[in-house]
Amino acid sequence: MSSEDYSFKRLHFKKHPHTQLDAFRFAYEGIVYCIRTQRNFRIELVLAAVALGVSIWLRTGVATIVACIVSVLVLEMINTAIEATVDLFTDEYHPLARIAKDVAAGAVLVASLGAALIGAITLLPPLLEKLK
C-alpha cells in the first residue's frame, strides 16, 4: 500500500451524533451512577461536606479543601470507570485485571490520605485556636 492509502483524506469519520446538551446529560448520569452504586463515593461526599463546612466556618483554606475534594472524587470516578471496563472484558480472574483494579484503587487511597493530611494541616490549627 502506498502512503496515500493511510492518508487522513481517505478516512471517513462518522460524525458524532450527540449534542453538547447530550454530553452534559451523559456526564450527569455518570455522577448519579457513582452516587447510587459506589459506597465509597457516598462516604467521600459526606466527608467532603464536613471538611468544606468546617473550612467555611473557620474562614480558612476553602480553595485548598475544594481542590482536595475534587481530586478524590475525580479519582474515585476514574477508579469506577476502570473497574467497569475491566469487568466488561473479563469475567474470569486474570492477574492483569487485578493489577488494573488494585492500582486504580491505590490511586484513590493515596489521594484520600493526602487530602486528609492537607485537611489536617489546613484546618486543625485554626480549629484548635477557635475552640480555646
Question: Can you describe what's shown?
Answer:
- 14% of the residues are buried.
- The chain is an all-alpha fold and 132 residues long.
- It has four helices and no strands.
- Helix content is 78%, strand content 0%.
- The termini are far apart.
- The protein has helices spanning 20-37, 39-58, 62-89, 95-131.
- It is globular, with a radius of gyration of 21 Å.
- Helix 2 (39-58) packs antiparallel against helix 3 (62-89) and helix 2 packs parallel to helix 4.
- The chain has one domain (17-131): Helix Hairpins, CATH 1.10.287.
- Belongs to the bacterial diacylglycerol kinase family.
- It holds the Pfam family DAGK_prokar.
Helix and strand sequence = HHHH
Please tell me how large the radius of gyration is. 21 Å
CATH architecture: Orthogonal Bundle
Tally of discrete structural domains:
1
Give the topology.
Blueprint: H1 20-37, H2 39-58, H3 62-89, H4 95-131
Please describe the structure with a list of short key phrases separated by commas or semicolons.
Helix Hairpins, mainly alpha, 132 residues, single chain, 4 helices, 0% strand
Short structural summary:
This protein is 78% helix and 0% strand. The chain is an all-alpha fold and 132 residues long. It has one domain: Helix Hairpins (Orthogonal Bundle).
